[in-house]
Amino acid sequence: MTADTGEFTRDMNYVTTRITEDGRDGYPVQSGRYRLVVSRACPWANRAMIVRRLLGLEGALSMAIAGPTHDERSWTFDLDPGGRDPVLGIERLREAYFARFPDYEKGITVPAIVEVPTGQLVTNDFNQITIDLSLEWRALHREGAPELYPEALRAEIDEVNEVVFRDVNNGVYRAGFATTQQAYEQAYHALFDRLDWLSERLSGQRYLVGDTITEADIRLFTTLARFDPVYHGHYKCNRAKLSEMPVLWAYTRDLFQTPGFGDTTDFVHIKQHYYEVHRDVNPTGVVPAGPDLANWLAPHGRDALGGRPFGTGTPPPPPPADERVPAEHTPLRS
After folding, report:
1. According to UniProt, where does the site described as Lowers pKa of active site Cys lie (predicted)?
2. Contact call for residues 53 and 263 (beta carbons, < 8 A)
3. For domain 151-329, which architecture applies?
C-alpha cells in the first residue's frame, strides 16, 4: 500500500500460526501432513525453497509451484495439468485461505503452508517459516543438513537480517512503488547506502555472518538474484547494476553456483511476474528479453576468502525431477 506521502508500506500482518515440534499451535511437525506453496517468481517464497532444499525436507514437506503471474484473486496453479494442484485439488491459493478464514480480507501471499488433510492455510508468515524449518523440523532434516540458524550466531544474523530487510529486500519495493519523487529518492539512497555497506562487509569474508552459509545469506541472495533482471530497470534502482558492483556480484555468483540456490532460481518466471503483473509500473506488460545470463556461471573467486559453505554438513543432492527449473529458464546445466 502507498501512503499519502507517496511511500510504499508493506502490510506485515501475516497468519502467524506456527508448525512446531511440540504442536503448541495445534499443528505439530509431521511428514506428509503439510504442503509448501510457492511461486518461483517471489523472493520471499524462493527463500523457503532454498531452505527446504538445503535441509533435505523434500520428502517430508511437499511443494506446490504456482504460476509466475496472478490477478487480484490470487496465485493460480496454471502450471499443473487441468490448472489444479494435484495434491490440494485447488485452482487458486485463495481457496486454502478461505477454507480456514472464510472472511479473509488481506493479500493472498506466498510462501504459504497448507495442511493437506483439511486443505486449510496454516501460515503465510514468510519471516518465521524458514526459521521454523531450521529449528522445529530438525527431526526430519537429511543427514548432513547444514545449520542455517546456529544458536551462537543468531543475534548477529537477526541484526543483519533486520537492516537488509528494511533497506534492501523491502527497499527495492519502496523505491519501485513510490509515488512521489521524495519517497523514491529516500528509498533509493537507503538501498544503495546499504549495498555499499554490504560490499564493504563482504570484501573480507565469504558469507554475511560467520564462515558458513546462514539464513542471512539466503535472505539477501533472493533479492540480489532479481536485481539486474527486474529491480534495476523496473523499480528504478539504477545507480548501478549488480554486475557493476564487483564484491556483491561475485558473492551472488558464488551462492548461485552452490547447490540449492541457482537450481531454485527461475529467471523467466521472475521477469514474467514483475513486468506482467505490475501494470501500474509497466502498463504495457512487455517483458524484457535480457539480461544475458551466461555470466552467472563465470568464476567468482570467493573461495579464496575461505569459509565452508555447509559447515560440517554436505551439499544437498540434485532436486527431484518434478521440481527442476526448466533448462531454458536458467544458465545452469540441467
Report:
1. 231, 274
2. yes
3. Up-down Bundle (1.20)
144 burial (CB, 10 Å; 0-12 / 13-18 / 19+) is middle
Q: Known binding site for glutathione: residues?
A: 75
In the chain, which ranges are E strands?
34-39, 62-66, 70-71, 74-75, 112-115, 120-123
The helix-helix angle for 246-256 and 181-202 (nearest 10°) equals 70
Residues flagged as binding site: 75
Distances in Å between the Cα of 41 and the Cα atoms of 24, 184, 214 are 32, 24, 22
User: How far apart are alpha carbons 85 and 63 in whole angstroms?
Assistant: 10
The tens digit of pLDDT for each residue in 173-202 reads 999 999 999 999 999 999 999 999 999 999
Domain ranges of the chain: 34-140, 151-329
Helix (H, G, I), strand (E, B) or coil at 132: helix
- The type of residue at 29 is V
d(CA 209, CA 217): 8
Mean per-residue pLDDT of the chain: 96
Question: Per CATH, which fold does 34-140 belong to?
Answer: Glutaredoxin (3.40.30)
Looking at the annotation, which residues are catalytic?
Answer: 42, 173
